[in-house]
Amino acid sequence: MKFRTRALVGICLLAILSSCQRQRQKVIAVIPKGTASIFWIAVEAGALAAGKENQVEIVWTGPAQETDYSRQIEIVDSMVTRHVDGIALAAAERKALVRPVERAVAAGIPITVFDSGLDFKDYVSFVATNNYEGGRLAAHTLAGLMHGKGKVAILMHAPGSASTMDRERGFTDVLQKEFPEMHVVATKYGEADASKARAGAENIFTAQPDLEGIFSSSERSSLGVALALKSRNLSGKIKFVAFDSSDAIVADLKNGTIDALVVQDPFKLGHEAVQTLVDKLNGKTPAKSIDLAARVLRKDDLDKPDVKELLAPDIKKYLP
């Protein structure tokens, strides 16, 4: 009789444990390039929104600086050790992050690559703004402002950053193929730092006193160029097309320091990256590539309701 009772208790315990395992909340790690900019804060809000909608836990963790890819490698490895259920990664460097991602896949953890590409193909989905087309948009916009001729500079982001490299390539390809009277006469890296971008832009302005246009390929580079233009009293004199937005950048669009912005939807970027992993964990097959279109904004667009929502999503209701 005692044996039968113990057996029944054992069966019940196994059933309870099995039920708990089935009901365990899935955990998805979202690892951005950095955490300091408003862009990544909006991405985090989108990721948390998707987590809430799908009842999965989101672990948001990334390096403070976008150029610290050694720290990003450590974070990916720590999530593999923790054996999270999925990882969404915005790679700070397209080659350096390949090995840790391979380790994750070998451990059975599905990977979605988002925002910036990686030299690796065994991922669930690649979710990103079409950055090459974003660069092309920027080139056509600047060409219109400059009437298709003149000297141009590019304030780039950082070496090895696939997303911004695609923007820069799209920009230069358009000028070379479609606007032979526009010439890129200077390029500098901002290294994901607004103060370095400002110094780089000021060096360009000194070396190229007849510069007529400039393009920046990231938020930090855009902030730095705007600061340099204002410090040299060049606002409105040099045509400036920036990429990405923040409160300060939007203010500079309003005051005329920036002529046009090419913007992404960071909230949607974070949301879709998480959603692909949720779908994968639920037995679905997400699209291998999800392109999110960039958009050009000018001062007159800022009062439009959809633009207000794009530039200032209600992130507070999602952030801890």
Features:
11 helices; 320 residues; 48% helix; 12 strands; elongated; alpha/beta; six-stranded mixed sheet; six-stranded parallel sheet
Can you offer a commentary on this structure?
The chain is α/β, with parallel strands linked by helices. It is built from 11 helices and 12 strands. The protein has helices at 2-23, 38-54, 69-82, 98-106, 131-145, 162-178, 194-207, 219-231, 247-254, 266-281, 305-311, and strands spanning 27-31, 57-60, 86-89, 111-114, 126-129, 150-156, 182-189, 213-216, 239-243, 260-263, 289-292, 295-297. The chain has a 6-stranded parallel β-sheet, with helices on both faces. A 6-stranded mixed β-sheet has the order 7-6-8-9-10-12, with helices on both faces. Helix 2 runs parallel beside helix 10 and helix 3 runs parallel beside helix 4. The longest helix has 22 residues, at 2-23. The chain is elongated, with a radius of gyration of 23 Å.
